[in-house]
Design brief:
Helices cover 48% and strands 22% of the residues. It has helices at 2-7, 12-24, 29-36, 40-52, 71-99, 114-122, 138-141, 146-158, 171-177, 225-239, and strands at 27-28, 56-61, 64-69, 108-113, 132-136, 163-168, 185-190, 199-204, 207-212, 218-223.
Length: 245
């Protein structure tokens, strides 16, 4: 019972004194002090606080103050406190939201491991409600399997998810390019002499998916509007061939 009262907000001494008062009925603080071995002044202090909260009642006979505990009083007072707290919460939350900076949002990061995890992560693109911007390491993407990739490209086309791909000008790229219209895809390629993509980055909705299959197979999905917009801007600059002064 003490544990239950602690969960309701009682201190341990309050719980001990309250249970003793329930057991022995209407009593002055001095009697409960003897039953609990708590100092009389402590019991009196505890009972005064409990009475203020409406958990117990008090009365006076002559010069002696008596206290009485009824679980119904505890229930009623607790319900009133909950109602008051809910009202306070309702009034406070909008004020707290005003203090929160509009320039921050909590990022959600999900890690996928292994080839199967990479397939699962890459398949999230199929449900995108926006066009996809991608820096694609095609040779490495094919490590997820020809069957998987062919099915993925067919499903993406069926779902009408268009993708703009920046990739290296390789033999695989030339093969894919012939099917661009069928696969709802646009591609721009750079010379392998300019560098290499060992990881693929797909930007869609408010998400950025980093997919690495070069040596280790893993994927990281970041769900954050600011991060997605930043990578989308970089993709646009590369796509349009803009030079930074």
């Amino acid at each position: 019972m003490i544990e239950k009262l602690l969960q309701l907000g009682f201190s341990k001494k309050e719980a001990v004194a309250y249970l003793a008062l329930l057991e022995f009925g209407t009593q002055p603080a001095s009697v409960i002090a003897k039953k609990t071995t708590l100092p009389k002044a402590t019991v009196l202090f505890l009972f005064e606080n409990l009475a203020k909260r409406g958990y117990i009642r008090k009365s006076k006979k002559g010069r002696t103050q008596y206290f009485f505990a009824d679980p119904a009083d505890l229930e009623s007072a607790t319900q009133q406190e909950l109602t008051a707290r809910q009202q306070t919460l309702k009034e406070t939350i909008p004020l707290l939201k005003e203090f929160r900076t509009p320039y921050s949002s909590e990022p959600k990061v999900t890690f996928f491991e292994g080839l199967q995890g990479c397939r699962k992560a890459y398949s999230l693109i199929l449900q995108s409600s926006t066009e996809v911007c991608e820096f694609a390491a095609h040779d490495d993407l094919m490590k997820m399997g020809n069957d998987f990739m062919n099915e993925f490209m067919q499903k993406r086309a069926q779902n009408k998810v268009f993708i703009n791909v920046v990739c290296a000008n390789t033999e695989l790229h030339k093969k894919f390019r012939k099917l661009n219209k069928q696969h709802r895809r646009a591609m721009k390629a750079f010379s392998p002499k300019q560098g290499a993509l060992h990881s693929s980055i797909a930007i869609f909705e408010n998400k950025v998916l980093l997919l690495n299959l070069y040596h280790d197979a893993f994927a990281i999905l970041i769900e954050n509007e600011e991060v997605a917009q930043t990578l989308r801007t970089i993709h646009t600059l590369v796509w349009n061939g803009k030079q930074v002064a």
